């Protein structure tokens, strides 16, 4: 937030802002908000109310950002930037994917069809399988992007 304020020449009043607010990653929050709205529109088009869609998709993205920030805060201060970026990227995609798929899983149906314990295990299997699939698709997309450069 501090960098954005300086870029927009709003730095004069920035001294009054608490230090922890100066470190808010504006681009990350804006990206999460944009993704939340795009995902919420898709869920709304598939029959969910706007409120339910925004809460579920926004909750997954905000939760992913918060857990990622916590994970990065646990890294040693001396950690190289590439390590911080790598850990941050993997945690952000993984946690956000798990939360998003967990919020979209049909838990009632899983429990009804398989019983409580087996239903939770069945739904959890779906969540982690779908999240793993997200990583595979991303890897493939990145690889195809790299190949197209050459």
Mean pLDDT: 85
Q: Quick one: biggest sheet?
A: none
> What is the distance, rounded to the nearest whole angstrom, between the alpha carbons of the first and last residues?
37 Å
User: What's the total number of strands?
Assistant: 0
The portion of residues forming beta strands comes to under 5%
Shape: globular
String of helices and strands: HHHHHHH
SS summary, helix count: 7
Verbal overview:
By secondary structure, this protein is an all-alpha fold. It has a domain at 1-80. Helix content is 80%, strand content 0%. It has helices at residues 2-7, 19-22, 26-45, 50-73, 81-104, 107-114, 116-149. α3 runs antiparallel to α4 (50-73) and α4 packs antiparallel against α5.
Topology:
Layout: H1 2-7, H2 19-22, H3 26-45, H4 50-73, H5 81-104, H6 107-114, H7 116-149
Gist of the model:
The protein is mainly alpha-helical.
Task: Give a quick set of tags describing it.
150 residues, mainly alpha, globular, DUF1269 domain-containing protein
């Amino acid at each position: 937030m501090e960098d954005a304020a300086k870029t927009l020449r709003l730095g004069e009043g920035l001294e009054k802002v608490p230090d922890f607010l100066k470190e808010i990653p504006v681009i990350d929050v804006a990206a999460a908000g944009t993704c939340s709205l795009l995902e919420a529109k898709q869920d709304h088009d598939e029959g969910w109310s706007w409120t339910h869609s925004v809460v579920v998709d926004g909750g997954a993205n905000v939760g992913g950002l918060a857990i990622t920030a916590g994970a990065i805060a646990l890294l040693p201060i001396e950690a190289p930037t590439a390590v911080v970026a790598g850990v941050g990227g993997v945690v952000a995609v993984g946690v956000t994917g798990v939360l998003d798929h967990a919020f979209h899983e049909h838990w009632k149906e899983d429990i009804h069809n398989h019983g409580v314990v087996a239903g939770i295990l069945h739904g959890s299997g779906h969540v982690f399988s779908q999240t793993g699939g997200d990583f595979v698709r991303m890897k493939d997309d990145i690889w195809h992007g790299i190949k197209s450069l050459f």
